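dumping this here before i forget
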Amino acid sequence: MKRTLLFSIFLAVAISSCGPALQSEITLTTVPEPLLKSMPPEFTSQPSVSVGFFRDARQGNFVVRNYDALIRPTNSVTFEVEDVIRRTLVNAGYLVDRSAPIVLRGEIREWVVDIKSKMPATLTSKAVLFVEAVGPSDKRIYSGVYRGTGYLEKVVVEHKDVQYMLNAAMTEAVAQIMADSKLLGILSSF
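structure:
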């Protein structure tokens, strides 16, 4: 009887401590720029591009769906996306300049981590970006949709795990932008 009671208490504590214990808000960390799969192209002259506004077109103002609880970011989703795109372009050899003849802008259509099950918890992340290259006279030259995903299993979910998953999905989406040879060809032609 005593052994059964102790086991029951241990089991109750173990199960309750394994579920995600997250707060109602999360601060987004700087999204790491992707490692480029190939070396940046050699340009005859350094192409310049401007990074414009990325509208937050996500359904709802949350970045984590923890069962039924929705966790909102405390900082700007648009800033983080624009920043990682800007840094990635610079690393690829582009001059990022507000007066450039071509502008990359778009929409953040999805950026979320879903947390499901309890032991272990499964975290799946997804990022979807719509990007358009706009030339002189505000005319769209090219557009595309770029996606990133992530998957992780954890016994105890912490904020750092959620941030890692958010970053993994967005970094992959930005890597897809930099893998679009047609888009890069357009950027390099101005």
